[in-house]
């Protein structure tokens, strides 16, 4: 059956576009549902988490897929699920589970030889052997901010890990989430951990370490330009604090607070201070039953007694002299912040489509503008790139990296086309960018106004697969000729949590099933 369900642009004049009806084949797709053991996924609750992080940033998506031989790995809601392919059938097993699932990022896995490095979504790396027996743990740094791993490399007796550490900066009286990219060297024999910052206030789409000296990153120039700030003014401390083995004493100077914020009223709660419309959140949880509060005209004194070992280690963050400030409109997203930063900056600014939201620009194809996405080569001892390649594109859809060949594959949208390039280092360590394929007039730009979850391209570049957040699967067959291609569609009833393309068969992981999709 051929069904006409949409329109697609057929010329390159975006100011005066012409459309024709686009034909979809849905009788050419065969779907098979493989039921998983219920207990494997029974605690994956996605009903309240429709806003997933954008799949254009591999490292931020809550469901990552990896492969090693016949093993495929998906990270979903605090658990790392291993699927083993045996004659087109899968066996499922949970190989890693967070003790506390309220982390900002799900665990991710990085293969280094026969060993596996797993990040816990916070500040710890866990080394496993080939049979998933834990060998040791490494602390990335002492600053307890949410972290995610871009890439990892084993070199001689050391692990080299590039990770991002989230932080908040102020602009236009609003808080914006940004990222400090750091490189961490871990001596596998002495367990010594040394890390340093490579990029400040930047949010690479991907950052792959190639050698101990070089790395390659996909950068979004809009993000850095928008967040480039003048030096922060020196803020006079408005509290003093001290600690002993049993307690912490903190004293706030209310005169300074009122002068700084011109506030008529300061409200003290067990875990935050509200001054006018600004809320200051303490990084650690304060138990009201274990706190003592005293007041006088000029200060507020309180003591927090020790609840357990290391309780106050990061009671106060480094921002704003010890407390993290969020704006009033962001307060309503506090629960989402804990669960995954789904909408933290979704309403910050129309110009910068937030990296931490799934906002989809429905009018994107109608605006004749490009975004400067750069592919940068970095000497890891320097913060400035040694080489830049401007991809001049609208949207990065997918970035992947082949460890053996050291080739990065990038799918991106230009005009209404999908472009595929490979990026690899030369012998003299320059980046070589090669065009691999173009899918002309990609119809999903008009047919699917939803969030893109996963994109794949077959090895022969004949088929382009796109899965959106509502479960629609678009399979675009490229004939090599303009407007002569056919698009096929399948519909999955549940939220896609992960996906992997094996040859020409697409496997999509949902809450309780693995859906096998192939072309007849």
Describe the model.
This protein folds into 2 domains: 5-230 and 368-519, YVTN repeat-like/Quinoprotein amine dehydrogenase (Methylamine Dehydrogenase, Chain H, 7 Propeller), CATH 2.130.10; 239-320, Sandwich (Immunoglobulin-like), CATH 2.60.40.790. The chain is mainly β and 520 residues long. The radius of gyration is 25 Å and the shape is globular. Strands 1-2-35-34-33-32 form a 6-stranded mixed β-sheet. The longest helix is centred in the middle third of the chain and has 8 residues, at 254-261. Strand 16 and strand 17 form a beta hairpin. It is 6% helix and 48% strand. Mean pLDDT is 63; it is low at 1-23, 38-64, 283-290, 305-369 and 443-450.
């Amino acid at each position: 059956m051929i069904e006409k369900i949409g329109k697609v642009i057929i010329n390159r004049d975006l100011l005066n576009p012409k459309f024709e009806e686009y034909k979809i084949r849905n009788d050419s797709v065969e779907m098979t549902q493989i039921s998983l053991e219920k207990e494997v996924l029974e605690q994956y609750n996605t009903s309240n988490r429709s806003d997933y992080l954008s799949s254009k940033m591999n490292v931020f998506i809550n469901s990552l897929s990896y492969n090693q031989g016949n093993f495929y790995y998906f990270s979903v809601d605090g658990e790392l699920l291993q699927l083993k392919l045996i004659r087109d059938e899968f066996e499922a097993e949970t190989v890693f589970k967070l003790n506390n699932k309220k982390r900002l990022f799900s665990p991710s896995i990085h293969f280094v030889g026969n060993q596996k490095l797993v990040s816990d979504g916070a500040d710890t790396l866990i080394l496993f052997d080939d049979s998933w027996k834990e060998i040791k743990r490494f602390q990335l740094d002492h600053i307890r901010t949410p972290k995610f791993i871009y890439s990892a490399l084993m070199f001689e007796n050391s692990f080299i890990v590039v990770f991002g550490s989230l932080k908040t900066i102020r602009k236009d009286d609003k808080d914006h989430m940004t990222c400090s990219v750091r490189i961490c060297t871990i001596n596998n024999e002495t367990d010594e951990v040394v890390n340093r910052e490579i990029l400040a206030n930047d949010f690479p789409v991907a950052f792959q370490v190639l050698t101990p000296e070089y790395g390659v990153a996909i950068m979004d120039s809009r993000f850095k330009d928008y967040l480039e700030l003048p030096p922060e003014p020196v803020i006079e401390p408005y509290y003093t604090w001290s600690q002993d083995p049993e307690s912490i004493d903190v004293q706030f100077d209310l005169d300074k607070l009122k002068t700084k914020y011109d506030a008529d009223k300061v409200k003290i709660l067990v875990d935050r201070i509200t001054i006018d419309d600004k809320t200051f959140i303490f990084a650690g949880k304060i138990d009201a039953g274990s706190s003592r509060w005293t007041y006088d005209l000029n200060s507020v004194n309180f003591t927090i007694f020790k609840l357990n070992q290391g309780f106050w280690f990061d009671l106060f963050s480094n921002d704003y002299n010890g407390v993290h400030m969020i704006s009033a409109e962001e307060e309503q997203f506090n629960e989402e912040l804990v669960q995954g930063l789904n909408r933290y900056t979704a309403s910050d600014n129309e110009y910068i489509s937030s990296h931490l939201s799934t906002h989809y620009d429905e009018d994107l194809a109608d605006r004749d503008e490009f975004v400067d996405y750069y592919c940068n080569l970095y000497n890891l001892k320097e913060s400035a790139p040694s080489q830049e390649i401007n991809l001049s594109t609208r949207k990065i859809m997918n970035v992947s990296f082949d460890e053996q060949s050291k080739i990065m594959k990038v799918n991106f949208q230009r005009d209404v086309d999908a472009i595929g390039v490979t990026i690899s280092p030369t012998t003299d360590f320059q980046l070589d960018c090669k065009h691999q394929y173009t899918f002309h007039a990609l119809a999903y730009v008009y047919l699917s106004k939803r969030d893109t979850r996963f994109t794949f391209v077959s090895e022969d570049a004949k088929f382009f697969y796109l899965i959106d957040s509502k479960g629609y699967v678009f399979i675009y067959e490229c004939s090599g000729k303009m407007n002569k291609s056919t698009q096929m569609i399948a519909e999955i009833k549940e939220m896609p949590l992960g996906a992997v393309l094996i040859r020409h068969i697409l496997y999509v992981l949902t809450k309780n099933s693995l859906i096998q999709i192939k072309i007849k």
